[in-house]
Design goal:
alpha/beta, Aspartate Aminotransferase, domain 2, 7-stranded mixed β-sheet, 35% helix, 11% strand, globular, binds pyridoxal-5'-phosphate
């Protein structure tokens, strides 16, 4: 009964574990809150374990299958990260427990700030933002306040290339800035002429994702930075795509003034199913005073042989607090563990392999699929999921069909500047054998699109669930399973 709900598997009297009789007094909950008619499912341990393991594999599971989703959360989540994050001193730390007994926690946050400074080439870091988009808002508020602090009230325009992630324009609007879209040229770079045209003293800054959402490194990045700085604007870097730059290029050295990292994209912290992310923001020297408070700093240097004392400090012109307490500390622990496990050389190797893997796939697939901006890519690339001579086939059909081969679909319909986009990011940790198997499946699908299109249009065939009504699923969320006789709240 693979599709059974847990209540349907229930059988009265079965149980998975039996607890010993309590040897402490029963602490009753407040009146009216205790219920003895709570209908919980009754299952044996085997039924329970099988049920949840089965669920974890519908329709795809990252522990069993390759997951080439582009522009997205990282697919490699080393198990040791979880072990360390679950250590009681971290997992049960209370946000109000005080600095004196939180020295180990503050030390981890401090060290993570230091690593991110070094990796990004920045003078200061805030670990507060809860995700990339939240980091963008934080960074943009820093830019806005920087201009205002100088009495420069006319600087309200943010330039954003059309290859940007959708969160960039959204964050800009939320930060009260005005959005101007910049077109890309035929190689996927910013159109420099257009850039020069719109740069004037109303410019707050430019938001650049580098590499951009096509997976392409901006070939004129230094010129872009120069033009923006020359007319008094600041450079915002969307660092969601840092993987291919690690240990090779530091955005701070390129002249970026502010950048967010996505720990859940670059530093192996999980962010699936809406779980917590983390989007630390790095800034250049001139902006450190504006960082959100609090920041972890050394408040008393250690003597020889003793550790320094860490504390929480508020930068002078801080934009204020962006998140309750200190951000998603569990994610900080995971990212820090990952960095320490990799070491300096390992971090550089991440970039090498991310670029190698993506280019290997790009070159092996480019005869079968149209790749509109076909030049050396960074950690991901975008191809068209359509052929003029197979008019009934769309990117969605390809994505559904690839599931029959045990692979998670690539990102669909993003970025918007490529028709029927399929965005593929293999992740640096995948082996050549896995990449080859994916290529074989994609080549077979390209062939089927022309010889038996119906096979694609009716896919997936092998997963427990076929094509779902995604709009209905989002509108009518069912987040918990209930026995049929309990009315929905
Ligand atoms: C994912 C992503 C974001 C947004 O990050 P979240 O953590 O999902 O909020 C912003 N820009 C780019 C380029 C991204 O890929």
């Amino acid at each position: 009964m693979p599709e059974a709900l847990i209540y349907e598997l229930s059988s009265p009297g079965r149980y998975a574990v039996a607890f010993p009789e309590s040897d402490v007094p029963h602490a009753a909950p407040p009146d009216g809150l205790e219920r003895d008619d709570l209908p919980l499912p009754e299952l044996s341990e085997l039924d329970l374990v099988r049920h949840f393991v089965r669920l974890s594999q519908y329709n795809h599971s990252i522990d069993t299958g390759f997951y080439p989703l582009g522009s997205c959360t990282m697919k490699y989540n080393p198990k040791i990260n979880e072990d360390i994050a679950r250590m009681p001193g971290f997992a049960f730390a209370h946000p109000l427990q005080g600095e004196k007994i939180s020295q180990g926690i503050l030390a981890i946050m401090y060290e993570l700030q230091e690593w991110l400074k070094e990796i990004g080439g920045f003078a200061g870091i805030s670990l507060q933002p809860a995700a990339g988009a939240h980091g963008e808002l934080t960074g943009l508020l820093i830019i806005r306040n920087y201009h205002r602090d100088r009495g420069d009230h006319t600087r309200t325009k943010m330039l954003i290339p059309d290859s940007a992630h959708g969160t960039n324009p959204a964050s800009t609007t939320m930060a009260g800035l005005e959005l101007i879209e910049l077109p890309s040229d035929a190689r996927g770079n910013i159109d420099l002429e257009k850039l020069r045209e719109v740069c004037d003293d109303s410019l707050a800054g430019l938001m650049l994702t580098n590499p951009n959402t096509l997976g392409l490194f901006e070939e004129h990045v230094q010129e872009v930075v120069r033009v923006v700085h020359e007319c008094g604007g600041l450079m915002y870097g969307d660092g969601a795509n840092m993987n291919p730059l690690l240990g090779i290029v530091r955005p701070g050295d390129l002249g970026f003034d502010v950048m967010h990292f996505n720990l859940h994209k670059t530093f192996s912290t999980p962010h699936g199913g809406g779980g917590p992310g983390s989007g630390p923001v790095g800034v250049a020297q001139g902006l450190v005073d504006f960082l959100p408070a609090p920041i972890v700093d050394i408040v008393e240097p250690g003597d020889e042989g003793t550790a320094p004392t860490f504390g929480l400090v508020k930068p002078l012109k801080s934009i204020g607090r962006m998140k309750s307490f200190h951000g998603h500390f569990g994610m900080h622990v995971r990212a820090y563990t990952y960095m320490r496990m990799q070491g300096k050389a390992g971090i550089r190797a991440i970039a090498d392999h991310a670029v190698l893997n993506a280019n290997y796939l790009r070159v092996r697939l480019r005869d079968a699929y149209e790749i509109p901006f076909d030049r050396v890519c960074m950690h991901e690339f975008v191809m068209e999921g359509m052929w003029p001579d197979a008019p009934d086939i769309h990117a969605l059909d390809i994505s559904k069909r690839i599931m029959d081969f045990g692979f998670h679909p690539p990102t669909n319909y993003f970025p918007l500047i490529v028709k029927e986009a399929l965005m593929i990011e293999p992740t640096e940790t995948e082996s050549k054998e896995t990449l080859d198997a994916f290529v074989e499946a994609m080549l077979k699908i390209a062939d089927e699109a022309h010889t038996s299109p119906e096979t694609l249009r009716s896919a997936p065939h092998s997963t427990p669930f076929g094509r779902m009504d995604e709009v209905k699923a989002a509108r009518e969320l069912v987040l918990c399973c209930r026995p049929a006789y309990i009315p929905k709240a």
